[in-house]
Amino acid sequence: MPYFTEQARTYGKCMEQIKAKYGEDIRVVGTRNVMMKGFLGLFSHEGVELTGTYGYPIFGSAAVQKDRPLQVDLETAKRQVLAAAGKTAPESSMNAVLKEISALSETITQIKEKMDTAVSASPNQVTHPSLQKLEEDLLFNGFTSSFVKTILDRVRREIPLQELDDYEEIQKRVILWIGKRISIYQDPEPVLQSKKKPRIIVLVGPTGVGKTTTLVKLAVHYGELERSEGVWQKQVRLITLDCYRIGAEYQLKRYGEFMDVPVSTAETNDDLKKLLALYRQDVDYILVDTIGKSPRDYAELGKMKAVLDACPARTEIHLCIQASTKAADVREILKQFEPFKYKSVIITKMDETGQAGNVIGVLAEEQKSISFITTGQVVPTDIERAEVVRMLMNLDGFAIDRPVLTDHFRAIDDKGGE
């Protein structure tokens, strides 16, 4: 079987040269990056070397399905040989011919097996420069290896080889794919809210993620505070379960005094039940701050859940995760706080990182929605409703066309994901 080896600056150029020399019936079985010499052996530059076979339509022709099995029907071959040779041919000659057919069949089968092995392995072994750069960019942004593999596999399936040289276009498509995997949490409908007053929102999460300041920001957001006049459009109450961390209760009460919002403390399940009953009639929103716990502190997490069991079933629990948390830790936090049945994730301190692939990727893989992001320490302003494009803006090295993407993802933001 004839083989070729060809070099060029890019994969696309190399394919053009191969087809110009050997025609369309080709099958690439190997690709590697090489250093190519320039004029008179000077000015070396990077290039691509492709190897493969040609001249056998059964392997490479566009007219033949690439997954079509290669078969040799020996019985048919025997009949054809007998018909051609006639019954007068010596039996020894016929046996020799049939023996050669069998040997040829075995050879072709072995070649097919090698080709199939090369083709099935090539998605992982062949590294086009654009794929290599895309992998590096995704990993730099903190995406997990499993998420990156999913994206690269999709590129290989959906983007033709001749288009891989256009990295800008690849980026645009990958950004769309990532954006479509981001799920946005939607608040309950206003009609449902009015029938189930008050709306109870609880924040849980590890220590140090900024739950208390996030709670105050949410109070202003949901209470529709007219900051210029200091008038609340909705009645809001704050409750803290954090009676142990030094200064935690004091901090929240200081915020409450500044905003003229009552702040109460609950240490037990009964305390929380009484406060919820007290506020049931005249309050629109009750926001509950909890004790920051390590996701590995199972006993303390169990105690906190026992207190929160005082809340009615309609309570919305949101898990706070800091934007710079490593992907592996994000996954563990999601898992360990699962017993709280949180409805969404609030990503805090987004301003402290430029690579949000860690949270985007893990939340997408775990199918968790995002409700808010916080973008600074200023209370109560540094909070935003989560939006797909806003999340994508925190990917470093990717060209983000915000107006175009905003139009594209508006339906996803409105509906909470595809």
Description:
The protein is an alpha/beta fold and 418 residues long. Helix content is 46%, strand content 17%. The strands form 3 sheets. Strands 4, 5, 8, 9, 10, 11, 12, 13 and 14 form a 9-stranded mixed beta sheet that branches. The protein has a 3-stranded antiparallel beta sheet with strand order 1-3-2.
Task: Outline the fold blueprint.
Layout: E1 3-8, H1 11-22, E2 26-36, E3 45-54, H2 57-60, H3 74-85, H4 91-125, H5 129-140, H6 145-158, H7 167-180, E4 183-184, H8 190-195, E5 199-204, H9 211-223, E6 225-226, E7 231-232, E8 236-240, H10 248-259, E9 263-265, H11 269-278, E10 285-289, H12 298-308, E11 316-322, H13 327-336, E12 344-348, H14 357-365, E13 369-374, E14 383-385, H15 388-392, H16 402-415
Parallel strand pairs: 4-13, 5-10, 5-11, 8-9, 8-10, 11-12, 12-13
Antiparallel strand pairs: 1-3, 2-3, 6-7, 13-14
Key words describing this protein structure:
418 residues; 3-stranded antiparallel beta sheet; alpha/beta; 46% helix
Care to give the gist of this entry?
This protein is α/β, with parallel strands linked by helices and 418 residues long. Helices cover 46% and strands 17% of the residues. Strands 4, 5, 8, 9, 10, 11, 12, 13 and 14 form a nine-stranded mixed sheet that branches. A three-stranded antiparallel sheet has the order 1-3-2.
Strand residue content: 15-25%
Q: What would you call the structural class?
A: alpha/beta
Assign a percent range to the helix content: 40-55%
What is the count of β-strands? Answer: 14
Helix and strand string, N-terminal first? EHEEHHHHHHEHEHEEEHEHEHEHEHEEHH
Q: In angstroms, what separates the terminal alpha carbons?
A: 49 Å
Q: Looking at the chains present, what oligomeric state does this protein adopt?
A: single chain
Mean pLDDT: 80
Largest sheet: 9 strands, mixed
